[in-house]
Specification:
Blueprint lengths: L6 E3 L2 E4 L8 H13 L2 H7 L4 H14 L6 H14 L4 H17 L10 H10 L3 E5 L4 H9 L12 E3 L10 H10 L8 E5 L2 H9 L3 E5 L15 E3 L6 E3 L6
Parallel strand pairs: 1-8, 2-3, 2-5, 3-4, 5-6, 6-7
Helix pairs in contact: 1-5, 2-4, 3-4, 3-5, 5-7, 8-9
């Protein structure tokens, strides 16, 4: 289903990042190697940091090796990276590394050309904007604070990941987000993603959905199922006005 003539009457938009606002290729080709080259130093030099220690404990639990040393933990992280596994401790440690890389100016986030103008326009129109990504909240914060147009975090009302919301293909995760945002009518939330499984889960939780289908992205050929489909954010029409019945 394509979007012409469709107007979403919602109060908030929840954004996926990879493949939706930003190129998956940038994450895979730039951010993944950046984190891979720094896992070892992070694990050996920062093992006492609470976020690092918690993530390492989660890795050990997931692989069933409570005594796993830093070498095995690093090997596991790299294997998960190769699989593009959405493991929470992997995303946490990547977030720590990426946040520092963005802060140093080593990294600048990527957005498709149609995205930032749309986000500014929606924010100006009174829409609340949220992010729900498998990348950690720390990584999301750094991503939006380090855009080619500067710090855009003020546009975003909240950030959600697999740790504070849950897995992205489970409806309960979207219910948690709706509750956290104070939304009493889930039909007033619009979720944008390139992954049909995520869109299905959001719709099962009562949300409105639109699939973003960009040529060259991993899910482009698969499509977005029976969800409304847009090629760019320009094609999405949103109204904040509630219908009177």
């Amino acid at each position: 289903m394509t979007l012409p003539g469709t107007v979403f009457e919602v109060d908030a938009v929840v954004l996926d990042i990879e493949g939706t606002t930003s190129a998956t290729g940038f994450v895979v080709d730039v951010l993944y190697p950046y984190s891979r080259s720094r896992f070892g130093a992070l694990l050996s030099e920062r093992s006492g940091d609470p976020a690092v220690a918690r993530a390492v404990a989660q890795v050990r639990e997931l692989i069933g090796e409570p005594g796993a040393d830093a070498v095995l933990v690093e090997k596991t992280l790299n294997a998960w990276l190769d699989e593009d596994r959405k493991a929470t401790p992997l995303k946490t440690l990547q977030g720590v590394i990426w946040s520092e890389g963005f802060a140093r100016g080593d990294l600048v986030s990527h957005f498709y050309d149609d995205v930032l103008p749309a986000l500014r326009a929606w924010h100006s129109a009174g829409l609340r904007l949220y992010v729900y990504s498998s990348g950690s909240v720390a990584a999301q914060r750094a991503w939006f604070a380090s855009t080619p147009e500067g710090d855009l975090l003020p546009l975003v009302s909240g950030l959600y990941d697999t740790e504070n919301a849950g897995p992205k293909q489970e409806p309960e995760s979207y219910r948690r987000i709706a509750e956290a945002t104070g939304t009493t009518d889930p039909g007033r939330l619009l979720f944008l993603s390139d992954r049909p499984g995520e869109l299905d889960a959001a719709r099962a939780a009562g949300w409105r959905t639109a699939g973003i289908s960009r040529p060259g992205e991993p899910y482009y050929e698969q499509g977005v199922g029976d969800h409304a489909r847009a090629g760019t954010f320009d094609e999405i029409s949103i109204s904040t006005t509630r219908s009177i019945t």
